[in-house]
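Entry 14: structure prediction run for Small ribosomal subunit biogenesis GTPase RsgA. Input pasted below.
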Amino acid sequence: MHNRDKNNLKRKGVIVAHYGVAVEVLFNDTGERSTVRVKRNSGHVVGDNVEVKGELLNRQRRFSELSRMDTRGGIHVVGANLDVLCIVITCEPLPPPGFTDRAIVASRAAGLTPILVVNKSDLTCFMEYFQDIKRSYSGSVTIFSVSAETGSNLDQLKEFFKEGHRGVFVGPTGVGKSSILNRLIPHLNLSTGEISETKKRGRHTTTVSTLHLLEGGGELVDSPGFNDFGLVDTSINELAAFFPGFEKKVANSCRFRDCRHRDEPGCAVTDLLEQKQISEERYATYLNLLTELEMIDSDPKYRERRNRRKK
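Run finished. Output tokens:
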């Protein structure tokens, strides 16, 4: 095919890597890959379905997007057309307080299914930690116990993704996200950081957002620096319904429809607390998230932006 004919041909594909001023597109028809230049603030992200004609890139409508908020209040889309958020945690290093609950809420608010991937089952601290995680989350999310070091139970994670899921790995620095990807995708060889003996944290080494095809089906996105969540897509009224452990209690259970589960009479959530079905620590996390959302919601510009994104 002549170059002129090739440049006039519209080809559909998916963005599998983003380099700032260029994206790598995997074409649906041939499986070929091509790099296409884009403006730095073009808005294209890994997972976007696109139509390419020469050097022109046309993004197709997204059915989902996962976003985060930076320290200045700016919103950044991490990945598009995802259906699963893989939250990687471990006993060493422990996640920051409230991280797991925040990640689950953010996932559900974005329309994704959260799963917990508890890594480093080979460590001596693992079993006690894993039992705590199961007590807190087994009724709310699917939990996988794995070891990137030994490969233990990673076949179960592969089988899950063979159902056709596209997920993104998130988690604090040092939990082994890239190490798990290296196990799931042979010959990938993502760089992994050394663990500091003083802080027990790995240096984050992934620098480019990338989408990877799993053998047998499914896709995984590795995104750099995704260590924390701003509650970009969550409203105050949705928080309790998305918060793990509350979801089955808040639906039509509280006396007042606008109950925020602080100290209102007839509150189903505070009943859970009194019955010790949810810990004081996790209830404190809920209250912190609620206060954060109330502060955000007091900003008309942000509230308008969130409502516009949800349409």
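Notes: The CA atoms of residues 236 and 293 lie 6 Å apart. Will compare against the previous run tomorrow.
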